Amino acid sequence: MTFLTINYVNGSKLEKPMTSRLKRLLANLGLLLALYTLSRLLFLALNYQSYNQLPLRELGQAFLVGGRFDIAAICRVNAPFIVLSLLPFGFVDRSWYRSVLKVVFLVSNIPFLLLNIADYEYIKFNGQRSSLSLLDMGQDISDQIGQLAFHYWYLAAIAGGFIFALYYLSQKWHATPLPPQPSHWVRDCVILLLVTSLAVLGGRGGWQRRRLTTALAAVNDKESLSHLALNSTYTLINSQNKCDGMTRLNYFANDAELAKQFPPRNLPAHQVTGPAKNIVIIIVESLSTDYTGIGNPGHGYTPFLDSLAKKGLSFRNGFANGRRSIDAPPSILAGLPHLRDETFFCTQFKTLHGIGKILKSHGYNTSFFHGGKNGTMSFDTFSRRMGFDDYYGLHEYPDPKDSDGIWGIYDEPYLQYFAQQLTRRPQPFASVVFTLSTHNPYLVPPQYENSLPKGELPIHRTVAYFDLALKHFFATAETMPWYKNTLFVVVGDHIGPPQAISPRMIDSYRVPIVFFSPGGELPKVDRERVVLRLL
Questions:
Q1: How far apart are CA 35 and CA 18, in angstroms?
Q2: Where are the alpha helices (DSSP H) in 377-457?
Q3: Averaged pLDDT in 10-residue chunks for the chain of 535 residues
Q4: What is the pLDDT of residue 504?
Q5: Fewest CB within 10 angstroms: 33, 275, 337, 390, which?
Q6: How far apart are CA 34 and CA 15, in angstroms?
Q7: What is the C-alpha to C-alpha distance for residues 70 and 35, in angstroms, rounded to an integer?
Q8: CA distance 392 to 295
């Protein structure tokens, strides 16, 4: 074991260069493992509502499984740092080279630590650890980073603490540069090969045939424990953003076999009398059924929407199939559910037979409205692929003073603008509007600061504001010539922050779906039936 011997230089003990490098490397990787474990503890603390009913044994299991994912993530992210630290060349011990190593170490790891910290709160909206689907939001992230850091100041403080710990503690293990020592090429190359082999094994997650996958994070088949066991670094680097990985599965030999199992229903022919109805779809940001009287009879913050539901048709068991705003348009307008993280990304490159194309073939004029910045969540690109004639965003809105200063135009003025624009469109028209005021940080116009119910969550006041804006929109629409010949649909894009974490995962997708037609009756159906948000 020649490389473990000690040299004496100027009367002081000096380890062999490779020994010193190896110790520094292991110390830095150990520091990362400690920070990832601390990050998991903080994730548990800030999402305690999801875990306070679980036994300590199961939480301990999640931490043990999580250690495996932490090692895998650290080995993958730090592969260049590991190799560069153990190169069998004399210059590796020079101060300039070790400064380069320090930069490589910090640049490689800080972004991923910040991602894990962001997921302490983002998972409450997204319902999963972050993946490459973050790229779907593109410029939105950089545009909002300032206000997000302000409103989630405690996450910014935690991030600062992690960065300081990583920088300061990693510095302490950088020993004084060694004087030139004789090279031991064979020994040093063997150590490099051995350590990199162990790193590859760690990155795979073990000796098993296939590398570690996120499915192995399941602890007692509980989704919340899977989120605790995983780290955001691993879910990001293990995800993919490509559209050619979906395989078509044929469960039946032919159409005849399919018909035997699912006999076609003989529906009466639908007779259309009079002019075709206009269609207006109002997609509401973060509107949970729990915020409405539909989900909480006698309670809620949407008295006007509740009145529409009573006059029209609504469903208590309406469900979204995603947890992000970006997942709503594909499912609502193209019948494409959130199958995988790259579902929305793929809509940017695939031709889809969406509601815009279908209604245009029946003579409809189509349009998509969103009060946010043009390009936000790629809604403008998506609407064109759905066959909508026109897209209206923040750039088309005439009065910038109606902006909330963060996301876009407040709901009340934007819905008034929407109503006026509909009057200018030829009938029959099909138009979609996506609201935004019920998005964090939950702002309302100054004139409503003291007149709206605050509720028990910050979002409740903005839900009440949306309901008021919806009431004023309908008051304006009633004066329009197209009103009585229009079918209105109001639907939440996904749930908002819950007041209490439900043990049933299905409640994390429950959104109101309301149909209202002022000019005619809607069919009588079972309001308790399960309805997916696929229109």
A1: 26
A2: 379-385, 411-423
A3: 37 57 89 96 89 86 92 95 85 80 94 94 79 65 68 91 92 54 71 88 80 69 79 86 61 82 67 80 94 86 94 86 82 77 56 82 94 86 86 94 92 97 96 94 92 92 97 97 95 85 75 90 72 52
A4: 72
A5: 275
A6: 26
A7: 10
A8: 32
Cβ atoms within 10 Å, residue 265? 5
- Separation of alpha carbons 38 and 497, rounded Å: 25
Paired tokens of 519: 């000019």
CA 175 to each of CA 28, 170, 528: distance values in angstroms, whole numbers, following the listed order: 13, 11, 69
Q: Please answer whether residues 421 and 367 qualify as being in contact, where contact means their C-beta atoms are separated by less than 8 angstroms.
A: yes
Cα–Cα nearest to 136, from 375, 391, 394, 434 = 375
Count CA atoms closer than 13 A to 158's CA, side-chain side.
24
Distance of alpha carbon 157 from the chain centroid: 22
pLDDT in tens, 370-412: 999 888 888 888 888 888 999 999 999 999 899 998 889 999 9
Which residues does 482 contact at the CB level (< 8 Å), separation at least 6? 278, 422, 423, 427, 429
Cα torsion 117, 323, 234, 92: sign: negative
CA 23, CA 79: separation in Å to the nearest integer? 16
- Cα–Cα distance for residue pair 212/192, rounded to 1 Å: 24
Name the strand (E) or helix (H) holding 256. helix 255-261
- In sequence order, the 6+-apart residues with CB closer than 8 A to the CB of 474 are 304, 308
Q: What is the C-alpha to C-alpha distance for residues 92 and 84, in angstroms, rounded to an integer?
A: 8
Residues in the chain: 535
DSSP 91-125: GGGSHHHHHHHHHHHHHHHHHHHHHHHHHHHHHHH
pLDDT value at position 152?
Answer: 85
Question: Angle between the 185-204 and 17-46 helix axes, to the nearest 10 degrees?
Answer: 20
Q: What angle do CA 201, 207, 208 make, to 5 degrees?
A: 125
- Tell me if 146 sits within 8 A of 153, measured CB to CB: no
Q: HSE of 133 in the Cβ direction (CA atoms, 13 Å)?
A: 23
Of the candidates 64, 43, 102, 36, the residue with the CA atom closest to the CA atom of residue 234: 36
Helix (H, G, I), strand (E, B) or coil at 423: helix
- Closest by Cα among 299, 276, 277 to 288: 299
Residue 108 and residue 103: Cα distance in Å, rounded?
Answer: 8
DSSP-assigned letter for residue 327: G
257 contact partners, CB below 8 Å, separation of at least 6 = none
DSSP conformation class of 533 = S
List all residues 6 or more positions away from 149 whose beta carbon is below 8 Å from its beta carbon: 155, 156
Region for 300 from its dihedrals, namely left if φ exceeds 0, alpha if ψ lies in -120 to 50, beta otherwise: left
